[in-house]
Structure formats: structure tokens, C-alpha cells
Write a structure and sequence with these properties.
This protein is mostly helical. 61% of the residues lie in helices and 0% in strands. The protein has 7 helices and no strands. Helix 3 (131-155) runs parallel beside helix 7 and helix 4 (159-179) crosses helix 6. The longest helix has 30 residues, at 226-255. The protein is globular. The termini are far apart.
Length: 292
């Protein structure tokens, strides 16, 4: 099973892609290993599920990333994430400054979102990370965010700034909860969360069709009323759920010595999750502002 973002399936560090991840199933004969990605089979090799770990069993050391170069580190993830998110920010700022609020700019935003979607899908199905694809996705996503942020700001002054603060708060709180061990990312946790997320996306897709054909009015479930606020809160909670999956994959990728280029996938996944949270937070801020 692969970890996924709310919108796109992406490759992580799972065994089906040649890397060990949180969703690696315990081998037959393992005792008490359900949901434990680090557990070893009884009487087996503790490195059996880790294709990158050093084979120094004589020292009895636990699986850890090799000290040699070419392996993913937290610095790599931070640098690639900063570059990807920086590209999103630059694209958003340029779109805000250069594209005034109009039907034309709205059309450009939709076009940028479609291109970003296509680029993300292409990257999701590639066997290796492509920095050019990921940064191109970030640039077009930034254009989309810049236009819609300016539109929201023209009606609800300050909404984008509040949404940025809200996104940072949700991300920081999720990281604290994850690092404190209050949430354990196991295979069961991921399956249940993914089922809820897929159901949510399906319901939103049906709602979009109903709105498009005039069956549902005022946005249906995505209205700017109390129902829309509840849906928005659920969407943000799902975004936090996907952040925990991202954190776990990064942690395992580093622990298991995944190749350095995998840090681009980590940055890609984090960017998509943060964009999801920001867009939902932007809507939520507008709803609670109570000023249509």
C-alpha cells in the first residue's frame, strides 16, 4: 500500500517501489509485529525489510541510515521542501501582482490548476523523482493559489494571511502530536484514514457534479454556510492526517537510508498536502468572516 495525498497518489518509500516504508507488512511467522514497521521476523534478519541498511549484524545495531554519502537526510528534505514551497510562493506572489481580479485571471487560475494536476499525476506514476516536474508543478500551483488568494482578499480582506497562519498552526500542531507519539502511524491507521479520505473525495466529486448541473444550489456541501464550515473542518483534519503519513515516510526513508533523490518526493508530498490545507483554510476563514 502506498501513502497518498488527498488529491494525487504518489510514490513513497514502500517496498513495492523498492524502498522500505511504514506500510511494510510483517513477514510470515512474526510474533507481535502487526502495525510495527520495525519489528523483525522471529529468528530472522532485522535488516530483511531494509534494502538500504548496513549489513553489520555482528554489532547488533538497529536499522539506521548509513553514514555514507548519497543517502537521504533531514537536511535534504528541508532544502528540497524549501525550494518547492518557495517556488509556490514566488508563483503566487507574481500572479497576485500581475493578474488583477477578473474573469480572465480566474480562467488562467483554472488553467494553471489543470496543468499542475497533470504534472502531479505524471510525477506520481514515474518510477523516479523528477525535480523539473516537481518544480513546474509548484510554479503552476503557485499561480493558481495567487489568483484565488487575491480574489478572496478582494472580498474578505486579510483572508489569505489568516489562512497562511492557520496552515502553519495546523502543520506545527500535527508535527507536535506526531513527535510526541500521540498518533501512531500504523498500517491500520493508514487504511482507515485512506478509506475516509477516499469517501470524502467521492462525496465532493458528486457534489461538484450536482452543483454544475444546477441540482444543488449555493455550492451544495461547499456552501459558505454552517454546512460548508463543517465540510471544511473535515477537509483540514484529513490534511493533518496526510501530514502524519508524510512525516512517517520521511522518518522511515531517513532511517532506512533511502537514496538522496527521494527527498524530492518528500518535498512533493509535503507541498501537495500543505496546498490542500491552505485552500481549505482559506475557505474556512471566509466562512467564519460572515461577510458574503
Amino acid at each position: 500500500m502506498r501513502s497518498s495525498n488527498p488529491v494525487f497518489s504518489r510514490r513513497g518509500f514502500s517496498r513495492d517501489n523498492g524502498h522500505a516504508g511504514f506500510n511494510t507488512a510483517p513477514q510470515a511467522g512474526a510474533v507481535g509485529t502487526q502495525g510495527n514497521p520495525y519489528a523483525q521476523p522471529a529468528g530472522g534478519n532485522p535488516y530483511a525489510q531494509n534494502p538500504y541498511a548496513q549489513q553489520d549484524l555482528q554489532y547488533g545495531t538497529p536499522p539506521q541510515a548509513p553514514s555514507t554519502t548519497g543517502r537521504m537526510t533531514m537536511d535534504d528534505v528541508v532544502m528540497r521542501s524549501a525550494l518547492t514551497l518557495g517556488t509556490v510562493t514566488i508563483g503566487a506572489v507574481l500572479a497576485w501582482v500581475l493578474l488583477p481580479v477578473s474573469s480572465t485571471s480566474y480562467g488562467l487560475a483554472i488553467g494553471a490548476a489543470i496543468i499542475a494536476f497533470v504534472l502531479a499525476m505524471v510525477q506520481s506514476f514515474k518510477r523516479k523523482a523528477s525535480p523539473a516536474l516537481i518544480l513546474s508543478y509548484a510554479a503552476f500551483e503557485g499561480v493558481f493559489l495567487g489568483v484565488i488568494s487575491e480574489m478572496y482578499n478582494s472580498v474578505w480582506s486579510g483572508a489569505p494571511f489568516q489562512a497562511v497562519l492557520g496552515t502553519m498552526a495546523v502543520s506545527a500542531a500535527t508535527l507536535v502530536v506526531y513527535k510526541a507519539g500521540w498518533v501512531r502511524v500504523t498500517a491500520r491507521y493508514a487504511r482507515i484514514g485512506m478509506a475516509i479520505a477516499l469517501a470524502f473525495i467521492l462525496v465532493m466529486a458528486v457534489n461538484l457534479l450536482l452543483v454544475a448541473f444546477g441540482v444543488a444550489e449555493d455550492g451544495g456541501l461547499r456552501s459558505f454556510g454552517p454546512l460548508g464550515a463543517i465540510v471544511g473542518i473535515i477537509a483540514i483534519v484529513l490534511g493533518a492526517f496526510f501530514l502524519t503519513l508524510d512525516f512517517k515516510q520521511i522518518e522511515d526513508g531517513i532511517a532506512y537510508g533511502a537514496p538522496r533523490e527521494e527527498s524530492w518526493l518528500a518535498a512533493f508530498g509535503l507541498t501537495m498536502t500543505l496546498v490542500w490545507i491552505y485552500v481549505e483554510m482559506l475557505r474556512l476563514v471566509a466562512i467564519f468572516s460572515g461577510d458574503d
